[in-house]
Predict the structure of Uroporphyrinogen-III synthase.
Amino acid sequence: MALSIKKLLVSQPKPETGKSPYFDIAERYGVDIDFRPFIKVEALTAKEFRKQRIVIPDYSAVIFTARTAVDHFFHLCKELRIVVPEAMKYFCMTEAIAVYLQKYTVYRKRKIFFGATGKTDDLINLIVKHPKEKYLLPASDIHKDDISEALTEKKIPCKTAIMYRTVCSEFSKDESFDYDMLVFFSPSGISSLMKNFPQFKQDGIRIGCFGATTAKAALDAGLRLDIEAPTPEAPSMTAALEQYLKKQLENDGPQNDE
């Protein structure tokens, strides 16, 4: 028995360690997996940021939803020659983001807070316990407003500051694109696919998506969705991918290979 799927493209950077589940899947099922981000993040220039008329020292607390936001916040402060006040408080979506802050500031429990579950509601409940702070939310040009809207409803001031943007990665015209499966993790990745390959025809190429918004973007683009995660049975994309390949291995055989 042999898989009809031979070559996969995962639209993320290649894992830095050799312990990634993707490498285990490649070895177990005899498939080639390439890693290539379809999107990249660019920092706003100081000139672009100033157009928002936001004065960072006017705020007493910063909300971080990703490590990318941490990097761009402190990068922009450095470019603007802003000294972040020692009294500034930081509210993080997860403990991992809070720990990452040590790259830029001294970790103090009275200064850095993080949600226990990584969910938005948990972060909001944490922020509500500090209603007197004036909050700044560093964000990408493409973002959800659920945090700022939730805080507005609770009459807690929060200003969203666009500090970086998501742009499409460019593929060269003569670059080979001979994949049996493409795996995406954001709607922007789907947009990048359609921008780079406007004549793209899915035909027998399988499409895998992580997250409901990514799946919706794929369907809206007229693509057929073959793998979707997370699900109760497959909480990660690697779990969903392995389930799919295992099923295909059971179904594919010499009689199905064309």
The chain has two domains: 7-38+172-250, 42-166. The longest strand covers residues 158-168. Residues 46 and 76 are 7 Å apart (CA to CA).
